[in-house]
Design goal:
The structure holds two protein chains of two kinds. Chain A is mostly helical. Chain A contains seven helices and no strands. Chain A has two domains: about 35-110; about 120-185, no CATH class. The radius of gyration of chain B is 22 Å and the shape is globular. The mean pLDDT of chain B is about 80. Classes of the chains: A mainly alpha, B mainly alpha.
C-alpha cells in the first residue's frame, strides 16, 4: 500500500517520530513550507469534494443504466440481473455524497488535520507520460506486433520520458523487447502477436 | 483421507523432478520480481501467473506457491536494504531491518529474515495441514445463506485495513463488486454492461484487472519520483550473511511467537499479514529482555514480523482453500489462479481435488526449504539487481505485464483493459483509495451474488432466511458488531494504530 500521501516516510512513522537519519526519498519530498501545506490542504479538500460528487454522478448514471436496461426482478419475483447492480449503485451514490459531505463539513477536514494528497502536476505529468507510452504501445500491438510496439514503448521512454544519454542503458533498453520475444515466444512457446501489417 | 495420509500423498506427488524444478523456478522468479522496488507479492504473482497457467494444475500451482514465498522473501530484501516495503506487511520489517543495515549489519538482517521466514513458514504450513481438513468438514454444511453471510463478514474485515478512510475502503469495495457484475448473468443469460463487446461476455478478465491495478499502478506511482534510492553494502560471502549463534538464540522466541501469531491471524479472513506482522512486533517488544533496542536495529524486531508475515501464508490458505475466501490482495490473486485451473475453492476441494490440494500444501514445505537453501547464497546477486536503475526496470515490468495479460487469452482487448486498469490503479493510489478491497470484492462478487440470489430463491424472496439459520445468523450478527466496533468502538483505535504503522 504505497499510498502517495504527504506523511512521514515508512518506518519513521512507526518509530514515533524518532527520526535520526534523512529520509531515503528524494529532495522532492522534503518538508513543504507552511504556505505549501495550506495550499495542499485546500487542494486535498477540494479534490475529495469533487471526487465524492463524481462517484455519486457515476453511480447515478450506472443506476439509470441498471434500472432501465436490466430487470430488477425475474418472472417469478426472484432477484433479476439488475438486482445487485441497482443496490450497488445506490450504495455508490450514498458513499460518494458522504465523502463530499465529510470533506465539506467534517471536523478533521475543516481543521486541516486530515492527511493531504500529493498532487504535484510535475510528478503526475511524468506518470501520465509513462501511461501514454503504454497506451501507444497497446494500440500498436495489433498492427505492428509485440516486437515493434515494444520498441516504440522503449524509444518513448529513452527519448521523451527519461531523455537518456548513457549508451549502455540505451542499448540495454533497446534489447529488452527482442529478449522478451525470444524468452516468451521462442523458449516458452507463449505465442506473442506478430502484427497484422506483416501477415 | 486424513491429514497425514494426505500430506504423504502430496509429498509423493510433489517430489517429481518436473515439480521440483518448477518449484525452484517459482521461488527464484518470485524473489527476482518481488525485490523490484515497489512491487509487492500481489503484483509479482499477478505478473507471473500467466507463466504458471501453461502447466498441469498441480505443477502450475506448485510453481505459484514458490512464487508466493519468493515474492514475500523479496519484499523483506527491499525493506532492509532500501527502506522500501514491497507491501504494507513489510513496513514493520523496515523499522529495525533498515536500522541494522545502517549499522553495517544488513547481512545478518537478511539472514535472520530468511531463517525466521523458514521456521515460521514451516509452522504455518503444519497448522494448515491439520486445520484445513477440519475447516473443510465444517464448511461442507454451508449453504447459500451461510456463504452470503460469510462473504459480507469477510468483506467487512477487509475494510478494517482500508487505509485512512473507511469511506474510501467501502467505495473501493463497491466499485470492485460492480465490476464483477459485468458480463453474462448466469441466472438469466442477459448481458450486463458489456457495451456489445463480445470479449466482455465472460466478464472482466481478472489478470488484466489485477496486473493493471497492482503492477502498472505501482509502476506509475514509483516513476513519479526520479530520485534513485541509496543501497547499503551487502556482504558478498555467505558466512558474513549468517547471524551469529547469539543472534539466533536471541531471535528464537520472536520467531516462534511470530509463527504462531501469524498463523492464527492469517486464518481470519481479511486480517492479513499487516496485522500479523504488527501484532507480532508488539508482542516481541513487550516480551523482549532488551525492548530499548527496538526501533534502533534489534534483530528480534526483524525476526518477529518476518516470521509472522510468512506464517500468515499458511493461515490465510485455510479460508482460501476451504471456503474460497481470500484474506488479502495476494489471496485474491491466488484464488484467481485456482479458478483459472478450473478448481473451485471451497469445502469440496479437499474431497474432489485431493490430488491437487495436497501436493500444493506439500510444496509449501518444500518451498520454505528451497527459499532458505537457494536465496540466502544469492543475496549478493539480488543486491546487485537492486542496483539496476529503475528507468531500466520499469519498461521491463510494463512489457512483462503486457506479455502476461496477453498470454492468458491471446487477446489484444485484454491488453487494452490492462492499460485502463493501470490508470485506475494509479488514480486510486493518488487519491488514497486502497486498491486491495476493490480486487478482493471483484473476486468475491460473483460468489456473493450467486449465494444471495440462491438464498432468496430458497426463501421465496424473504431475507429472514439469514436469521433463521444459526450459522448465517451468527455471521450476520458478527458482521453488524464488527461494523459498529469499526465505526465507534475500540477496534477503531486498533485499526488506526495499524494504519499509522502502514503509513
Amino acid at each position: 500500500m504505497d499510498q502517495d500521501i504527504d506523511r512521514r516516510t515508512d518506518a519513521d512513522v512507526a518509530r514515533n517520530g524518532e527520526v535520526d537519519h534523512p529520509p531515503v526519498v528524494g529532495a522532492a519530498e522534503q518538508e513543504p513550507a507552511d504556505g505549501d501545506e495550506a495550499r495542499d490542504t485546500r487542494v486535498t479538500r477540494r479534490v475529495h469534494v469533487v471526487l465524492g460528487l463524481v462517484i455519486a454522478a457515476l453511480g447515478a448514471w450506472l443506476l439509470y443504466k441498471s434500472s432501465t436496461e436490466l430487470a430488477f426482478r425475474g418472472p417469478n419475483g426472484e432477484p433479476g440481473p439488475g438486482y445487485l447492480p441497482v443496490l450497488l449503485t445506490l450504495c455508490l451514490i450514498g458513499l460518494g455524497l458522504a465523502l463530499s459531505a465529510v470533506w465539506l463539513w467534517g471536523p478533521k477536514a475543516r481543521s486541516g488535520e486530515a492527511p493531504t494528497l500529493s498532487l504535484s502536476p510535475r510528478r503526475i505529468g511524468r506518470a501520465v507520460l509513462v501511461w501514454l507510452a503504454l497506451l501507444v504501445c497497446a494500440l500498436l500491438i495489433e498492427p505492428l506486433g509485440f516486437l515493434l510496439a515494444g520498441e516504440v514503448l522503449v524509444l518513448l521512454v529513452i527519448v521523451v520520458i527519461e531523455r537518456m544519454r548513457s549508451i549502455p542503458l540505451i542499448i540495454t533498453l533497446l534489447l529488452l523487447p527482442p529478449a522478451m520475444y525470444f524468452l516468451f515466444d521462442t523458449l516458452l512457446e507463449v505465442q506473442l502477436p506478430g502484427g497484422t501489417l506483416w501477415y | 483421507m486424513n491429514a497425514i495420509d494426505g500430506l504423504l500423498h502430496g509429498l509423493q506427488a510433489a517430489i517429481t523432478p518436473t515439480n521440483l524444478l518448477w518449484l525452484l523456478v517459482g521461488c527464484l522468479l518470485g524473489t527476482l520480481v518481488g525485490i523490484l522496488p515497489g512491487l509487492g507479492p500481489p503484483a509479482t504473482i499477478a505478473i507471473l501467473l500467466p507463466l504458471a497457467t501453461g502447466f498441469a494444475p498441480a505443477t502450475g500451482l506448485i510453481m505459484m506457491a514458490g512464487i508466493y514465498y519468493g515474492a514475500k522473501y523479496g519484499g523483506s530484501t527491499t525493506s532492509i536494504l532500501l527502506n522500501i516495503p514491497g507491501e504494507s506487511s513489510s513496513v514493520v520489517t523496515c523499522i529495525d531491518g533498515y536500522e541494522m543495515a545502517k549499522k553495517g549489519r544488513a547481512g545478518q538482517a537478511l539472514g535472520i529474515a530468511a531463517i525466521g521466514s523458514f521456521v515460521a513458514g514451516t509452522l504455518g504450513v503444519i497448522g494448515l495441514t491439520f486445520l484445513a481438513p477440519v475447516a473443510a468438514d465444517v464448511a461442507v454444511n454451508f449453504g447459500p445463506p451461510e456463504y452470503s453471510a460469510l462473504m459480507v463478514f469477510a468483506l467487512l474485515l477487509v475494510i478494517m485495513l482500508a487505509g485512512d478512510s473507511m469511506l474510501k475502503g467501502f467505495i473501493a469495495m463497491f466499485i470492485g463488486l460492480f465490476l464483477s457484475t459485468v458480463g453474462t448473468d448466469l441466472f438469466s443469460g442477459e448481458q450486463r454492461f458489456t457495451g456489445g463487446q463480445i470479449e466482455l461476455a465472460g466478464g472482466v478478465e481478472f489478470i488484466a484487472l489485477s496486473v493493471g491495478i497492482f503492477a502498472v499502478g505501482e509502476v506509475l506511482v514509483n516513476i513519479e519520483d526520479k530520485t534513485e534510492h541509496k543501497l547499503f553494502k551487502v556482504p558478498s560471502k555467505l558466512r558474513e550473511l549468517l547471524p551469529s549463534k547469539a543472534d539466533i538464540k536471541k531471535s528464537t522466541p520472536a520467531m516462534l511467537q511470530g509463527g504462531i501469531v501469524g498463523f492464527l491471524i492469517g486464518i481470519l479472513p481479511g486480517a492479513g499479514s499487516t496485522v500479523a506482522s504488527f501484532v507480532s512486533y508488539i508482542i516481541a517488544k513487550k516480551t523482549s529482555k532488551t525492548p530499548e533496542e527496538f526501533g534502533h536495529g534489534s534483530i528480534e524486531g526483524v525476526a518477529a514480523p518476518e516470521a509472522a508475515n510468512n506464517s500468515e501464508t499458511g493461515g490465510a490458505m485455510v479460508p482460501l482453500l476451504t471456503m474460497g475466501i481470500p484474506g488479502s490482495g495476494t489471496g485474491a490473486v491466488l484464488l484467481g489462479a485456482l479458478v483459472l485451473y478450473g478448481l473451485n475453492p471451497g469445502p469440496l476441494l479437499f474431497h474432489e481435488h485431493a490430488d491437487v490440494v495436497w501436493p500444493i500444501i506439500a510444496s509449501m514445505y518444500l518451498g520454505n526449504i528451497a527459499l532458505l537453501v537457494m536465496n540466502l547464497p544469492m543475496v549478493p546477486f539480488f543486491a546487485k539487481l537492486l542496483n539496476t536503475p529503475y528507468k531500466v526496470l520499469y519498461p521491463a515490468i510494463l512489457l512483462i505485464s503486457v506479455v502476461g495479460v496477453y498470454s492468458v487469452n491471446f487477446s489484444i482487448f485484454d491488453v487494452g483493459l490492462l492499460v485502463v486498469f493501470g490508470l485506475l490503479g494509479y488514480v486510486l493510489r493518488k487519491l488514497d483509495i486502497p486498491p486491495a478491497p476493490l480486487v478482493l470484492a471483484f473476486v468475491l462478487g460473483p460468489i456473493a451474488e450467486n449465494s444471495i440470489r440462491q438464498s432468496l430463491l430458497l426463501s421465496d424472496n424473504s431475507p429472514i432466511i439469514y436469521l433463521q439459520r444459526p450459522i448465517s445468523a451468527a455471521l450476520i450478527g458478527l458482521a453488524v458488531m464488527l461494523f459498529g466496533l469499526l465505526t465507534f468502538g475500540r477496534a477503531r483505535k486498533v485499526r488506526e494504530q495499524v494504519i499509522e504503522i502502514d503509513a
